[in-house]
Specification:
Elements: H1 16-42, H2 49-58, H3 60-74, H4 82-96, H5 104-132, H6 137-156, H7 169-173, E1 175-176, E2 179-180, H8 181-198, H9 201-211, H10 213-218, H11 223-249, H12 260-270, H13 282-301, H14 306-330
Antiparallel strand pairs: 1-2
Helix pairs in contact: 1-13, 3-8, 3-11, 3-12, 3-13, 4-5, 4-6, 4-11, 5-6, 5-11, 9-11, 12-13, 12-14
């Protein structure tokens, strides 16, 4: 029985939980619209087409990773290795394309496949350690973060690996009309993630594990396999973002990806995904990514100090977590 106040309406009884559900579902969209209105009034350049494309292009790397992170956090886990994995993927992708005796039409797909494979492998190692050795996600992904960063520096001797084939730059810097190619890749990843999470049995199991893993296991679901696949998926998407970043930079940079964990987790949390698991959506993450991207872009347009930008981002994260806790308590 739902406890709450009621009011007469043409559609029947409206409860407090109905309002809270609406806030949880559409509040992120309203917040995004309000943010855009504020910056549009503050800066005449904000709503220009070049600036909008710039915002989307800036959030591509975080956005792709955030899709995988959403799956991980909904299961009640976390992945702190994404930034270091991006660096390792970039260095190995670039190194593979430096094989001098092979033509570019071979080394480009070879490098991309190696990069995607390395990222997926890191996800496999984390997922296997978590599901079969019962290691805490925080600990194993923290270890993977240091391992991947160290491996990136060892592989490259601490230097960027550049001078890549020109054709490879299309993935990170090309355009289809006015739309950057990386933005198209990001939107396709979000569409895939939404379909997988919201419209498949796998997605339902992901939510169920985050809500009550033991009950899900007792109902006959192979929870270990689902969690393992979630980390593999997150690793694959992280490696995809690493390949795109390498194409954009024109080099594999061993110190790239620093602090990506913060921005990605922040975007997922701001988008409404609960750190305790069981609640979240890809569309919420999409708007969470946009909110943070617009925040940085708008603050830059109005010449706010980068130090204040970090403070404001922290306040936004705290506010999102407090709102999540409030909604759960009221429900």
């Amino acid at each position: 029985m739902t406890v709450g106040f009621t009011e007469n309406s043409g559609s029947g009884i409206v409860t407090i939980n109905n309002y809270l559900s609406l806030v949880q579902k559409y509040g992120i969209i309203v917040a995004f619209i309000v943010e855009c209105v504020i910056f549009a009034l503050w800066s005449e350049f904000f709503l220009t087409v070049p600036n909008i494309m710039n915002v989307l292009n800036q959030v591509v790397i975080y956005g792709i990773i955030a899709v995988g992170m959403t799956f991980v956090i909904i299961t009640g886990g976390i992945d702190l290795s994404v930034g270091s994995s991006v660096a390792l993927v970039g260095v190995l992708t670039a190194s593979a394309m430096k094989i001098g005796f092979l033509p570019s039409w071979i080394v480009i797909p070879l490098g991309i496949l190696i990069g995607l494979g390395i990222g997926s492998l890191t996800g496999m190692i984390s997922g296997f350690s978590i599901t079969f050795f019962n290691m805490a996600p925080f600990i194993i992904t923290l270890a993977m973060m240091t391992i991947c960063r160290g491996a990136a520096f060892l592989t490259s001797n601490g230097f960027a690996v550049g001078d890549l084939p020109e054709a490879f730059s299309f993935l990170g810097r090309g355009r289809v009309g006015i739309i950057p190619v990386p933005v198209i890749v990001m939107l396709l990843v979000f569409a895939f993630g939404h379909l997988l999470l919201a419209h498949t049995r796998f997605g339902r199991y992901v939510y169920s594990i985050g809500g009550n893993e033991e009950a899900t296991r007792l109902s006959g679901v192979n929870t270990k396999r689902i969690k393992f696949l979630v980390y593999v998926l997150a690793g694959f998407l992280t490696s995809l973002s690493g390949v795109v970043l390498t194409s954009r930079l024109g080099a594999g940079v061993p110190n790239s990806g620093e602090m990506y964990e913060l921005y990605v987790i922040a975007a997922v949390v701001v988008g409404g995904t609960s750190l305790s698991g069981g609640v979240g959506s890809i569309m919420g993450t999409f708007f969470g990514v946009l909110i943070i991207g617009v925040l940085y872009n708008g603050l830059n347009l109005v010449n706010v100090s980068s130090y204040w930008q970090m403070v404001i981002l922290g306040i936004v994260i705290v506010g999102a977590v407090l709102l999540d806790q409030f909604l759960k308590k009221e429900k």
